[in-house]
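Friendly challenge for the regulars: who can give me the structure tokens for this chain first? No prize, just bragging rights.
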Amino acid sequence: MADELVSIRFQNSSNRDIASHAVTYGVPIPEGVLRGELGGEVKGLAIRLENGKLRPVQTRVLETWFDGSAKWLLLNFDLPIPKNVKGHTATLVRARKPADRNVVTVEEDKSRVIVTTPKLRVAISKKSFSLFESYKVNGKEMVAKESDIFLEEPMGKRYYASNAKDLKVRIAESGPQRVVVETSGRHTAGDGAELLSFRVRYVFRPNEPGVLVSYKFTNREKPEQGIKLTQITLHVPTNVGKTSVHQVRQANHGRHWFSRFVQVPENLEIIATGAISEVAKARYGVGGEGLIVIRDLASLRENLGEYPYYLRPGNARTDMTGGLRQVYPYIAMSGSSASALAYFLEMGFNHPKSMRSDRGVIDFDIWPAYAGEVKVRRGQSKEHDLYIAFDDKPHTAEELEAIYFDHEIKDTLPIHITLDPAYVEGCKVLNLHEWLRYDETKYLLVETKLGTAGGLGDIAFGVSNKGMWDFGDFINPDRSWAHNNEDDNALNNIREYYRMRAPGRLRGALTKARHNAHVDFIAFDPDPLREGTMPAHCPEHTDGSTYPSHMWGNGLLAAYTITGNEDLRDAALSVGENMLRWQKDDPTIFYADSRECGWPGLLYCRLYEFTKDDKWLAALDEIFHHLKEKVNDDGVILYELPHGVGTMLTSYGEFVAWRALYFFYELTGREDVKEFLIGALGKVYKFRPGHMPGGWGCNDMFPCWALYKLTGDRAILEDNYPFLNFLMERKEGFPWGGNDMHFYLGELDRLGELEQFNK
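First reply, four minutes later:
Bragging rights claimed.
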């Protein structure tokens, strides 16, 4: 039907009906279909459920096409999702938005911002920072005064968000389905000294029983090697009552290790920690890191004499799994007339962490005192998500736990979202209309070579490294090398998410993108060639050199168009600006080889699409003229290598230079660029076993595909059939995982030629 725009498929991997699942999700829109201004709302849309009922949707245009129509549209809505479903759909349709009494409203004056939902009313002060100036449920105040954030240095000096001199509060997003409020400032000691910038982001939804709070700190201090802290804590006094009891789910109890609820009347602390004992770590490695355990085993009232020795604490294998101390990652607190639920999202992945409840007070330790010192390097940021829900009456442990399970189950998301790959391909975004369609039944061997056979990553969310700084990265066991988003891995996984309908790929990509935009990103540095970008392959993330070929932004923009997270957009734009500074201020490095200027060229193409700013085309034009000067009569771009020695002329990194120039031509249609590409690629596109023309890494047959697209000559594709046969017959997969084999393979599929190689 013409009124149907895009269908979104939901999968509920839990055995629970979820009455209201909140969705924030960006979708691509074909060119010319929807009119809308950048950052504005597209009206006349609704979400149609499977039963035909309409639900309201809040929209925001994240990117436009060159004709001004919406290219990426952020959707905010909620819907019920039955348990264990694999193909539950909701469809964005043209329709009159249905009336809904369950909405979020926001108002502000000089003193505060007030957000009201059907379930709560929260005030955020503009005059003096507090996590909540007020949090009311049915008119009853749930929080006490003096909620705060504090940092502690090794010598004991404390810095408080409530002391911030220049507090800024803004409504970042406002609509009936989602309101986002941000407050920011500097942690400040009593003597006026400041340490680390902070930002707190609050997300309100109409049918959420609580508030999602995201706390981000950024090191903008001058010490070159960073600063040290011993504690970072969010402090939330509540009105649940001093005599409140705390409820946790113990994961392993009894000889058969069934879970159970435990009521803890005294103070309670649960922690996300490394391996519980050195013996367990020595024997089983880091497999047990990030476990959620109760700090004081005695709080569980276990009779250890009833357990065999192999289930008691001290047994290495038992300790590896957390044993009797393992609990679920939330705290439920209930008093005589009120209750509360609190948890970190992805608590285990971001260890060390701690949550404490005592006499009606809840503390979230971003960095717990028990973990010793933490070093925050100059320019680094880190953001943590936590959730707080109150009610004006007591609740059972099961009722409070249900709120947690609606959002997360032990670091696992219960709901997965995908789009029809054919729809995304038809939108012509992320070059997916030029990639190989996923059809494992037809192309099992090809997908095996690509490393994607078996639906790899369909649900599983692989975590290479855990830990507050390392989550979202891969670090060598000896910490000598880090991945740091090599080859724009975030972008490639987002493409595979759409192509394969693989939600695990998306979660991994978004985790990597967020890590790349915060932990790996240098938000402040006196050196303009370091500020606003990320270093290369640094195990401690920002403690190394920056250079143009290892600063990736395309994946950050792709992640932004799915999430609407402005940190990802801003980081990508910042990387582009940093590359412009390299190009102007240090051209010796920027033009050291094709890889150094090629990766900036690829990002410039995407930034021109995104911003429509001609400065990116001007920078691309300079790269184009440089490459024209460096190419030899054989179509190879040569440099004096090794760098600074100049003992020989050789090629290095043409694989990305060809990509950048081809997409430059696609954007502009410039005949001089086309003429150059045809002339050069006509000499280097042909491959043979043991020989990779065009320099290191140029092994993906993109030059062959690009030359075919420029000329329309199918013989060019056929000239590389022997090389494709060689790749298919050898035992290994495609070089570099085959990320950019997709263009060539996709073309053969569309021409009906690929099946002959899938044998």
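Residues 693-697 have pLDDT under 50 and may be disordered. The longest strand covers residues 70-81. Your move, everyone else.
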